[in-house]
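Sample entry as discussed:
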Amino acid sequence: MPVSFCLANTNRKGRIYGVIMEADIKQLEAFIHRFSHFIITTHANPDADGLGAELLLRELLISLGKEVCILNSDPTPERHLFMDPAGHIKAFKEGVPPFPSEKTGVCIVDTSDEYNIGPVQEVLFQKMAHFFIVDHHEPSPLTQLPVYSDTDAAATSEIIADLVRLYNVPISRQGAMAAYAGLVYDTGSFIYPKTTSRTFKTALFLVEAGAVPSEVYQALYETASIGALLLQKKVLSTLEIQGNGHVALQYMTKEDLLETGAAYEDAEHFINLPLKSRDIEVSIFIKQNLDGVIRCSFRSKGAINVASIAQGFGGGGHKNAAGFKSSDNLEETRQKVLQRVLPLFKG
């Protein structure tokens, strides 16, 4: 079944990027009101922001009388299970709900295009016709779907919280906890450059709705296994300093995961460690999962736009946080990435 562009016309705030339609909030509202059923999904290997956005959006849609299913390609990582104690998030293997296509809207959150959502993409595009992306990353030139992209937002969970306030509907303590976790995660505990007064207003809204900051922080950052500590030790041992002392590179292999017994997601924050140095401006982390898939993540400080570097490899993200999936082996990926990054630090 072909994909339908649900809202084909832009208004004064809408802009066309090739085939991309960047929508405004009114167009997103129209999409929400058009359908009685919704499927929500996020990027493969979901993180706390994608999950928090999904769970809060689910509550909003249910409060509006919709039938809702959250369906992700990958199961929720163990470290993020506290966000969904009721088990609202379903894994793709459990099947697509028998929703009628003509009455169903598919919301893709926290990714700039449909090609990052994993195997669920194929079946959704076979069974459903109406899609909308809600995101806070730089718009992707790859997508063929309508997009509401608020790149000023610190997290997609922040965008969904704005929607909740717009509709003035109550949310549960658990929904607030999930969205607050997404906000904390994507702001690095409120220290990343996109953290603004708006972010703190969102945090206040969620805390007043029942989120407990100490509980969220403990669940996100103080539940690591011994295996995770051993994995961090291994990854730090690979640290290279390049680019006249301004570029740090680390890598992780599937053998590292097997030897330490750590989970892939235990390595999420390792990329931030080199940035603790005042001299490091770009941190690169090349990591392999147990299936052998290689991903490269970037973090930067200051003026270096790592999103543009990642887009050159078919990925994307923010100015200071981005990444891509590599079809090359680890060493080939390392060489190609350094060829793109090191020229920025010549002289």
Remarks:
- The longest strand covers residues 282-288.
- The chain has two domains: 15-220, 226-345.
- Residues 1-21 have pLDDT under 50 and may be disordered.
